[in-house]
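#struct-help
A.M.: can someone run this one for me? Single chain, 461 residues.
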Amino acid sequence: MKNHYELLVIGAGPAGLAAAAEAARLGTDVALVDEQKAPGGQIYRNVGAAGDRVKDYLGKDYLRGKRLVDELLQSGATYINNAPVWYLDDRLETGILVDGASHFISADRLLLASGAQERPMPLPGWQLPGVMTAGAGQILLKSAAMVPTGRLVLAGGGPLLLLIAWQYLQAGVKIEAIIDTTPVASLLQILPRLARALPAFDYLLKGLSFMLAIKKAGIPMYKAIDNLRVEGRESIESIHFSTVRGKSRAEISIETDTLLLHQGVIPNIRLPLAAGCKVDWDAQQQSWKVAKDIWGQSSVSRVLVAGDCAGIVGARASELQGRLCALESAHQLQKIDMEQRDRVAKGIKSSLQRQLSIRPFLDALYAPSKAYQLPHDETLVCRCEEVYAGQIRKAVRMGCVGPNQVKAFTRCGMGPCQGCLCGSTVSALVADETGASMEQVGYFRVRPPLKPITLGELADT
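D.P.: on it. Structure tokens below:
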């Protein structure tokens, strides 16, 4: 492994795979670094080892990742796997962990494709054993063909919740109920966006097929619910929520052994922040996103971003963004001229526009519920340091005007996940309590180590 490359790509999801392979094809000396053991990211996790049978329960779109993995492995790009990034600074010095030792890599250009993470969904009892995220359930299904046993309930909103319900049905898993926490959206908001989404009609048909399969299976689906909570002693025993039936309000209780929560995904902005990239608040997606142009160029001259880490776009759009970043980096490194870049990019841009046409519709349809962005005082927010929403609100009333001050007062965000599971919730609570905008409040300051690292690993640099 060398210590310098012309282009360093971080993240082996669809954006990173496509970017690294395309850049290598254009003559760039490129390395792709990823913390997983095999390429594919979350959406194509373990796809290189997957047989044709998995399409029966994961869907044919999953196997699309095989082509990207093969393209990477045949491209000549250097692939460094099982190498989490623990350090990154504005000089683009990147520290990675490989085989128990720390290595530093520099690059002329850095392409960040770190993907997305699930939006935190804090609710009473979500820390009990038996409560997981839908993404965690999907990881087990893709990496080890493991499925929940016993009674299973899915709760939340977003396309992934429908997808994993469909995948579990294909795998023979019985689902007790689906609890839809998505706020009832106004038809006036959704219908204009539906017309603009028609170029991506295949996505609409796919979502409709998932819903029809769920209905055919007879799975109870509860909508327009609130006050969702988990109860149990040593582990989850039941979930409770309120719903409206006709003109009356009903309290529903469902016994379950496993609850999978999901409230959409948000960009993983930790690496872009560490590199000094500017981020903006996206009011529609209710999340931060990296400021960039069509080529993926960020506010930092030598840093490009692609895929969901720069704003949620989905797997196919992420792949196309990765290819545009590869063309731009090759142009900046003088591997190709502007005419060649623009000629090759023309078809990619057209396909990208079609893929992105569905996003305004999905963002409006699956807007996250405020109830889980602004949890009640007795709800645990920081699971690492056991900090509750009430403690965060109290710290704000004592004078904390931003998440970093809240961290100093409460230790919220100081645990092993370093704010990944609580960062967006803390910012939302501070903004709500102070009346400030999310832009004014900001996000946790990102500092190394970005991943846990031992003193031995640090010393063996």
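A.M.: thanks! The mean pLDDT is 93.
D.P.: also worth noting: The first strand starts at residue 4 and ends at 10.
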